[in-house]
Each structure stands twice: as structure tokens, then as C-alpha cells.
Amino acid sequence: MAAAANSNSDNLTLDKVREALIRQEDTIVFRLIQRANFPVNSPTYDEKFASFSGSLLQFVVKETEALQSKVGRYENPEEQPFSPENLPPSLVPPQANPPVLHPAAASININEKIWDFYFNQLLPLFAVPGDDGNYASTASSDLDCLQAISRRIHYGYYVAEVKFKDAPQDYEPAIRAQDREGLMKLLTFEAVEEMVKKRVEKKAAVFGQDVCLVDNGNGKCKVDPSVVSRLYGEWIMPLTKLVQVEYLLRRLD
Ligand SMILES: C=C(O[C@@H]1C=C(C(=O)O)C=C[C@H]1O)C(=O)O
């Protein structure tokens, strides 16, 4: 799906990009459900856990991203690392496709903001308090959530590129004036945002049901659908728009 928007600029239409974002919703909801299998498990985040330098989570993130970097994950512009310092280079040959994005995309990584809201605000809303000792699984599951959310937010590069290409006459004056507010207004579609919030809430309700053979389960969802709607309304969509603005500000460089 991402490859469709990524591989060829003729494929880059707003409908295609929105379709890719809709598919990514499924991934995000399923990964939150997966993380909700574990309680908060706070020792995962303890800076003095065992003999790692830093927390078990930081260790898992650094080592996983190092491996993924070697196999080319970060050659995709929308994949941004959480631990970018000293990442090993990719060992796989680069793709032959011509780049679709302006090179400025590579300099926009807002993962610090994503890390901050995920651990400080979101996680306590959907993981129950407690400790079941599954720290390694918890850390991998956090990284899965972070990566899916980050990819969705940095996909804003493509949204911005396609909006710019569709109406350069509207965007160019605001870019030349470096007018953040003006750009934000141009790229915002409130009706689309309302639809997204409703759809992800429904997905969380459907995907998070207990499926039973005899009845429809107990009606309780594995992740509260209103939390998923809030995740999109308060963090994912505003940050996707921030990526779009940052990209557009540099689009004519
Ligand atoms: C992504 C888009 O741009 C903006 C951000 C949205 C989002 O992150 O889902 C939705 C609508 C727009 O306000 C879009 O237009 O689809």
C-alpha cells in the first residue's frame, strides 16, 4: 500500500494517499490491542534495569532499529527511526524508483514528540496498571505501536506533496511568505478529520470485540474506542499536519 504511493509519482493522488492512511488505521488499532494484552509493566521503562545502559525499552528500540536499518527500513522516507544516532547503513541495494518527494522530507523527524505523547499520555489510557513480568514483549509491542503511529504521521510528506502538486498556485505564495498558519488552513479538511475519528472509533469497536461462537461476546472492547478516536483527534492528525507544514515550508528550497 505505501509502495503504491511511494514508487511512482503518477500513482500519487490524494485518493491513493488517503487509502494508504485508511489501511494504516487497521495496523494501528491492532497494535494497540496487542499492547493492551499487557499491563503497564513499568520496569520496562526503568532507566536502571539490569545491566543495559538505559531502560530495557531503550535497548530494544536501539537494537531493533539497528537491525532494521541494515535491511533497508530507513531507506523509505516515511520510516523514521526513534534512535537515529549511529544507525548502521543499509546493506541492501537502493530501490531504482525515482524519488517522489522533495529531499527536505529526510530532515523532518518528529519522533521525539511521538515518543513523548505515547508514553506520557496515551499508554496510561489503554494499558491497565500492573506488572506481569513480560517486559521484553511489552517493549517490542511498544515499538510496534510507535512505528505504526510514526509511519502514519510521517506519511504527511506524501499528503503535502500531492496537495502541493494539485494546487501550486495556492501553496506557493504561502510557502514564499513562510506562512505556517496560512499553510495549515490550506491543507486542513475538517470534514475529513471528523470522518477519520468516527471510522477509527468504529474499527476499535469491531476489531476489539471478543468473538464467541454462541453469542456476540461480552460487549467489552480490548481498547476503548473513544481512546482511539482521541489518539487521532489529539495527536495523530495534528502531528500529520505538522509534518505537512514542515515539508511545505521547505518545498521550494
Ligand atoms: C491527511 C490529510 O490532511 C489533513 C490531515 C488529516 C489526517 O491526518 O487524517 C485529515 C484531513 C486533513 O485535515 C488529508 O487531507 O487527508
UniProtKB/TrEMBL annotation:
Residues 72-92 are annotated as: Disordered. It comes from the Eukaryota. One of its GO terms (molecular function) is protein homodimerization activity. It is found in: Cytoplasm. Pathway: Metabolic intermediate biosynthesis; prephenate biosynthesis; prephenate from chorismate: step 1/1. InterPro entries: Chorismate_II_sf, Chorismate_mutase_AroQ_euk, CM_AroQ_sf_eucaryotic, CM_II_prokaryot. GO terms for biological process: amino acid biosynthetic process; aromatic amino acid family biosynthetic process; chorismate metabolic process; prephenate(2-) biosynthetic process. Pfam families: CM_2 (PF01817). SUPFAM superfamilies: Chorismate mutase II. One of its GO terms (cellular component) is cytoplasm. Its EC number is 5.4.99.5. It catalyses: chorismate = prephenate. NCBIfam families: CM_pl-yst (TIGR01802). This is Chorismate mutase. It comes from Prunus armeniaca.
